[in-house]
Amino acid sequence: MDDVTVMTATWYAEFAELEARGVSPAYERLSQAVARDEEILTLLDTLPEPKRQPNLLFGAVRLLGGPVLDPDAFHRFVLANWAAVAEQMRGRATQTNEAGRCAVLLPVLAALPQPLALLEVGASAGLNLYPDRYAYRYGEHTVGSGAPVLECAATGMPLPSALPRVVWRAGLDLNPLDVTDPADLAWLDALIWPEHDHRRSRLRAAAAVLAAEPPLLRRGDLVDDLAALAAEAPADATLVVFHTAVLYQVPSARRAAFTEVVRALPGHWISVEAPEVLDFDVPGSWPRPGARHVLALDGKPLAWAGAHGQTMDWFG
């Protein structure tokens, strides 16, 4: 393998070990297989580096009706249908819009001065803009009465007793998705991992909330267009700019520029990203499988969080 192929292989091997292990046996097997598959790796290396990521490949294959449970069948499908797979990968981005992440955001949102004006960066379809409409279950502790019910195993923190009061919500994305568009909803479904049927049900329930009250989604860049959209928020509400598993797709220079912009805004900044994305110095290592994200408020790390909002371990 040349150096580029080795880098791609390492990406898939690390995805298997750090992201999929203990969370999706199917994607763990598949990532391990791709990491050893020189034919698929060679094809992947014809794409721009950001387009070679595991979730994008697996989601594109699922969208096209291909198999992801059997690595051998996956290999044959990708080789036989590479033109179609590559077209999807070049034209799409991993816009996983997991409403379950609201369970990680809720304890921070509920503790901020109310009411709130929410602005999500990398909003995809905007499912995370409605934390006040869902219900939550933290073990035996429940909050809210809406649907879907978001479950999160949380430790080491006081649990919220009430939902936040949201008076304005807006999302910023390079390619906003519309849950009422069958093609957009199909892509969101394809990005859900194979065994996670509960997340598919959750997607449909959350999409119904948005269909009844469509969010304000603005097409734009997280650096160039953030301040202008933030200026539209009502002045008598607490502005909260937030993002979940977004910045890893942004080049480091733009990431730094975004950090400068968001810190200059009034209000608060909530991030849920892998620790290396924002160079966070956090205690120990992630406590559970899939809990590699760090919840932070205004740049201060507070908790380890599951990638899909399924767990939260407070240390802040």
Give keywords.
9-stranded mixed β-sheet; 11 helices; alpha/beta; 316 residues; 3-stranded mixed β-sheet; Rossmann fold; 12 strands; globular
List the helices and strands and how they pair.
Layout: H1 3-20, H2 25-36, H3 38-44, H4 54-63, H5 71-80, H6 82-91, H7 102-111, E1 116-121, E2 135-138, E3 141-143, E4 149-151, E5 153-155, E6 166-173, H8 182-190, H9 197-212, E7 216-219, H10 226-230, E8 238-244, H11 252-264, E9 268-273, E10 293-297, E11 300-305, E12 311-314
Parallel strand pairs: 1-6, 1-8, 2-4, 5-12, 6-7, 8-9
Antiparallel strand pairs: 2-3, 9-10, 10-11, 11-12
Describe this structure in words.
This protein has two domains: 3-91, no CATH class; 99-314, Rossmann fold, CATH 3.40.50. The chain is 38% helix and 19% strand. It has eleven helices and twelve strands. It has helices spanning 3-20, 25-36, 38-44, 54-63, 71-80, 82-91, 102-111, 182-190, 197-212, 226-230, 252-264; strands at 116-121, 135-138, 141-143, 149-151, 153-155, 166-173, 216-219, 238-244, 268-273, 293-297, 300-305, 311-314. Strand 10 and strand 11 form a beta hairpin.
Regions with pLDDT < 50 over 5+ consecutive residues? none
Task: Determine the fraction of residues in helical runs and give it as a percent range.
Answer: 25-40%
What class, by secondary structure content?
alpha/beta
CATH topology of the largest domain: Rossmann fold
Q: How many H/I helical runs? A: 11
Name of the top-level CATH class of the largest domain: Alpha Beta
How many distinct beta strands?
Answer: 12
Q: Characterize the largest beta sheet: strand count, sense, and whether it forms a barrel.
A: 9 strands, mixed
Largest beta sheet: strand ordering:
5-12-11-10-9-8-1-6-7
Q: What fraction of residues sit in β-strands?
A: 15-25%
Distance between the termini: 43 Å
> What is the N-to-C order of secondary-structure elements (H for helix, E for strand)?
HHHHHHHEEEEEEHHEHEHEEEE
Radius of gyration (CA) equals: 19 Å
Total discrete domains: 2
Architecture of the largest domain, CATH level 2?
A: 3-Layer(aba) Sandwich
Q: Tell me, briefly, the overall form.
A: globular
Average pLDDT: 95
